[in-house]
Write a structure and sequence with these properties.
This protein is of the alpha/beta class. Helices cover about 30% and strands about 25% of the residues. The protein is built from 11 helices and 19 strands. The protein starts with a helix and ends in a 13-residue tail after the last helix. Bound molecules: pyridoxal-5'-phosphate (PLP).
Amino acid sequence: MPMSESYYDRLSPVLKKVVDHFGTPFHIYDETGIRETGQQLIDAFSRVNGFREFYAVKALPNPKILEIMKTMGFGFDCSSIPELVLSRQAGGRGDDIMFTSNNTSMDEFTAAVGNGGCILNIDDITLISKIPKMPERICFRYNPGSRRTGNSIIGNPAESKYGISHDQLLDTYRAAIDRGARHFGLHAMLASNELNHEYMVETTRMLLDLVKFITGDLGIQFEFINIGGGLGIPYKPEDKPLDIRAMAEEITDLYTQFEKANGYVPKFYMESGRYMTGPHGVLVTKAINRKDIYRKYIGVDTCMAALMRPGIYGAYHHITVLGKNNDKNTTVADVVGSLCENNDKFAIQRPLPEINEGDILLIQDTGAHGHAMGFNYNGRLRPRELLFRTDGSVELIRREETISDYFATLNFEKDVLAPS
Ligand SMILES: *Cc1c(COP(=O)(O)O)cnc(C)c1O
């Protein structure tokens, strides 16, 4: 099941009223579902030392969503100055914020260490000498290259731009110690939308092995490890959900063994985006046109400006039609927006119920990397965001973009240089 059945059952009966009040299109997020997922994480990892989720802000950077994360005790993972500002506005202070930037500029470092600071998660050895002042607490992002860990191959990070190579690890921590760092973390982010929990277990095993290796050489203890995000969600009806309990149990075992062998354990952090909010968002849109040429097309009143994933990754998002029997898919159609790009399609050759103009479509699992990835190409404006509260109310949490937003950056002081 893509979006949770309970959200579907709660949303469907009220959706017509929400559409009538706010108008389409909109993303609508489910506070109840987000809290349930958060609580499941907390419960699953309750026996792992210092477990904490740092919500990956880029997945759904809305202040009201970040507020929910804060009340669950979560921190924030961010990588740009606006994301830092958002995290601090949501009440994140110091150790609540992990700054996992890459190709970092001096301005970003300055913003990260100022205003109450954060946990700096550094992406490259050369950045150590560029930090204005080495904080006491520092973390480094590790890239294992195309190494195997245990029996599993964990992707092919040798081609990815992130992190510190294995050869550089000891020199990196040594340099940080020399500059005054006293508390240490180790981070890796090696998966994306991964449904096999063994990947996360293997990442944990790899990080704990590295902690032991670095401690053996440099004598430092680690305050935490951070296994990153990348926990997957079932976008397709046939996908099997990630087994979070099995993942937590195996990681708990790794921790027990590590503690026995080393007399201490680092805290356990993760920074999930998709897993926390992905299934708890829906893009609601109205069918406005039907077109029959070589294929059938259903034209809707939004486009890839509101959800890029199908267009750029060919990602599957499950679609249902309000009030129709969605087990009876009699029509095969492409569901399209109006952007002048042929990849502006939410579904390609998808079996769907018969759709008429005015029908309401639910494009599911848009709660992460949905609205946030939107853009204005072709003069397309992003839709509003709503929050379906646990008390049953529906709240506007971001208005739709307007033409004046589109023109806002054309409002500036004249500035002409005559170089000669
Ligand atoms: C994008 C990102 C995440 C979140 O990824 P999900 O797939 O949404 O869990 C976490 N950490 C870092 C460093 C990221 O860039």
